Amino acid sequence: MDPKPIKYDHSKHAALSAVLPFSYFSSPVYLDFFGFIREENGEQAICWHDPETNTYPRIFPPEDKTKLQNIIISRATQGDIDTIEKEKIPILEKTLAHHEYYYQTKTLLSNRGKMGQRIRQFKKENPNHKILSAYDPKKILSFYQKWKLAKPREDQSINFFAYHLNNLKKYITKEIYVEIKGELAGFAWGAKHPQNGCWVGLQLKAIYDFNGLSRLLHQERAKLFANEPFLTLGPESDNLGIKQFKEELGPSEIKEYFYIQTGTKSLPKITKTDTIFS
């Protein structure tokens, strides 16, 4: 029986995650909440718990090609799959998981096109709005509870939000809040990624009634990371409107991830001509 996985702790396991690609799913706050460490193929693998199958798939493929057999990977790119196939390792299951959206920070700082148009519209319709860099956690939670009632969310995402709210300082989170008429209308959080020049847009919640508010939040948050050229906003949502919105923001890359399971590499058949007699 495989040893029981242990909880990922970035303060202890940062060296393990340092080899992971830049992604929302390799950010310290994500790994601390969702991540586990388990022994697999003779090495420590960073994985997460899949409640549907009660398994612990790797979040990303191992760097070592000799460790690609008999594993489950929840986020493999087509390039990873090509490598596995080149190694002649069978892929027993392959399912499209989701897409991750990457941007250049300067894109979100631009006032051209729809970005600038919607922000100007928001400012015109809400001239007395306030932009703040901190807020009462109790009021943030109250706002979030009202926001989530507009559309049911999975418990896991709600728990992740609560965890992050309680650990904003731990992850050196940069915060933006927008008040309209004395009431919180939306907020956005972000944090630097361990990889140089990269940051992650972690939370953005806004009341949909205010045209342009989401774009304003994206831009104000990007100003806090003006010296970091690249960011990820994570995966698309089941909400088609959010997916369309992320595409309208002008991603520099949309990365496609597959959920895969690999098998055992077949040994080459030995023929008479391959046999060497001494």
What percent of the residues sit in helical stretches (DSSP H or I)?
25-40%
Class derived from helix and strand content: alpha+beta
What sequence of helices (H) and strands (E) makes up the elements?
EHHEEEHEHHEHHEEEHEHE
Overall shape: it is elongated
Number of helices: 9
Organism: Candidatus Harrisonbacteria bacterium CG10_big_fil_rev_8_21_14_0_10_45_28
Protein name: Phosphatidylglycerol lysyltransferase C-terminal domain-containing protein
InterPro entries: Acyl_CoA_acyltransferase
Could you characterize the architecture of this molecule?
The protein is an alpha+beta fold and 278 residues long. The chain has 2 domains: 6-99 and 257-263; 101-255, Aminopeptidase (3-Layer(aba) Sandwich). Helix content is 31%, strand content 28%. It contains 9 helices and 11 strands. The protein has helices at 10-17, 28-34, 78-86, 105-109, 113-125, 137-149, 155-165, 213-223, 240-248, and strands at 6-7, 35-40, 43-48, 72-76, 91-104, 130-132, 174-180, 183-192, 198-206, 230-235, 253-262. It has an 8-stranded mixed beta sheet, sandwiched between helices. A hairpin with a 2-residue loop joins strand 2 (35-40) and strand 3. It starts with 5 loop residues before the first strand and ends in a 16-residue tail after the last strand. 29% of the residues are buried. The model is unreliable at 273-278 (pLDDT under 50). It comes from Candidatus Harrisonbacteria bacterium CG10_big_fil_rev_8_21_14_0_10_45_28.
